[in-house]
Predict the structure.
Amino acid sequence: MSLVKDLIEKVKVKNPAEPEFHQAVEEVMESLELTVERHPEFVKANIYERIVEPDRAILFRVPWADDKGDVHVQKGFRVQYNNAIGPYKGGLRFHPSVNLGIIKFLGFEQVFKNSLTTLPMGGGKGGSDFDPKGKSDGEVMRFCQAFMRELFRHIGPNTDVPAGDIGVGGREIGYLYGYYKKLRNEHTGVLTGKGLEYGGSLIRPEATGYGAVYFAAEMLNVKGETLEGKTALVSGSGNVAQYTVEKLLDLGGKPVTMSDSGGYIYDEAGIDREKLAFVMDLKNLRRGRIKEYVEKFSSAVYTPVDQGKDHNPLWNHKANCAFPSATQNEINAKDAKNLLNNGVNVISEGANMPTTPEGIEVFMEAKIMYGLGKAANAGGVAVSGLEMSQNSLRYNWTREEVDQKLQGIMKSIHKAAYETSEAYGAAGNYPLGANIAGFLKVAKSMLAYGVV
Ligand code: NDP
Ligand code: 2IT
């Protein structure tokens, strides 16, 4: 058996009942097969096995009281995956589906993604099985404070810098940061995604969605094409989806779908700026459901989606490109085939690991432009890195300056992924190129440190 296959099997045995983690490891490790021959020094130092094992995983109890005074207990996680190239960095996810395997998959992905950004950030991820949906502001605040009551002792601006992810946006970061500041009596860049008034960066809320669209534009540019006039399917209606739609509109694209866990809207006339403003108000302030879109805009149709079904009808509409921006494994092989049959030949993943391995196979066989999450959605963490830089400088860059830097970073991620794919004889295979490019920097650093 090859070193890589052997390792994948070992990971499955040693980490039972963590399917998403196995999936992420398998996806990355298979791309790294080609590096084994070229880098005997990595084999000798057993870098491959060392890189799949997190530095540490912190698990903690989070007790909190709801508005009626009833006490609940949630699980808290922070997986500090790898700090070879910088402090641990990565988001916090609050969603009922969160478990250790999901946080490990996200942390593992983050290591390679952060390396690709060109900024000095290691990888980590955390979160809780707390469900913010339907909770009052007071309940969310008390939960965030309870969560930080333990997390604060494990993080710091040079140690580990969390941020948002699913269920953790500006409101939650405010409560988390306020409580960290209270406990430590320190105003410091320990979280990113902060409000502009207290140390946040311009463009951070926009960065993941904008970055995913910039990445799609880069892939199209290789073929001499642009997003102008292209129809796009977008899933999700949260932070990433909203700013994906906004940037698509900026670049002349026509987004026609958005979704939440209940279902999706298809707006044949296109989601324009007025409609997007409605979605932003609905989701960010009123915290309502995407279904309400069709009550306001008659050009749209709402379809409920049964999460357990064998395909998601959102991916079955005529379009040129797709921006999955909700969650993991939202595109399976059947969805991938539907996308191809509908004319989609550009995929840029705003979400983390939104395509199943079987779905990826469909895209790779069809040789379409497939921008995997850790490259396409790296804009968010990249601007988090720029927020850290600004906090250290005690200075703020303008909107234009940050956007320019973000565009430059997305370009360089695309270039690194493309050129690495060429160097390994698979030009245009972005997963292969991105995984290898992200890996090499971390692996070389680990090698330099010796066995630690
Ligand atoms: P938000 O919480 O703002 O939005 C998440 C969206 O996805 C909501 O519309 C939500 O619907 C939907 N969703 C979440 N879970 C599911 C599910 N199990 N099934 C169906 N729909 C679901 O999160 P973000 O926009 O920040 O994150 C979206 C994706 O992007 C995630 O994969 C995240 O890891 C990734 N990402 C985020 C970055 C960031 O900077 N925020 C950076 C890089 C990647 P509902 O409201 O019904 O739950
Ligand atoms: O998955 C991700 O890259 C994020 N959720 C953003 C992480 C960050 O630190 O900004």
